[in-house]
């Protein structure tokens, strides 16, 4: 019985005593970064009919890629001699938290606002590369 599916219901499908032993014996145990990356939602949905500028979409994509990179760096920093207790490890995870917070803030602003955050800039600079429009 393979008890690893990484869905929210995996804990219900495995007996409590077998869950830990089957996970430890499995070669499919994910790294923390894989769990972290899988937990991210996709791009923030735009409200029906609203336009979204290319610069906003690229900012969201760049922040997502930066989170993946920072998680990998944090995992590497925590694999040293001192491990999770080292100052470098703590600093690396603080950086992950900061970038994650920036992405969450961008998504919150997109969800809360009826207009794209680049709207004022794009009204003054309609020919700017960031002002290309994605229709959803």
Set out the fold topology:
Elements (H helix, E strand, L loop, with lengths): L9 H4 L2 H10 L6 H8 L11 E3 H24 L9 H26 L6 H6 L8 E3 L1
Antiparallel strand pairs: 1-2
Describe the structure.
Keywords: Disulfide bond. It holds the Pfam family CP12. It comes from Dendrobium thyrsiflorum. This protein has two domains: about 1-30, no CATH class; about 30-135, no CATH class. About 55% of the residues lie in helices and about 5% in strands. It is built from six helices and two strands. The chain has helices at about 10-15, 15-25, 30-40, 55-75, 85-110, 120-125; strands at about 50-55, 135. Strands 1-2 form a two-stranded antiparallel sheet. It starts with 9 loop residues before the first helix and ends with a strand.
Descriptive key words:
6 helices; CP12 domain-containing protein; two-stranded antiparallel sheet; disordered N terminus; mainly alpha; 2 domains; 4% strand; CP12_dom; 136 residues
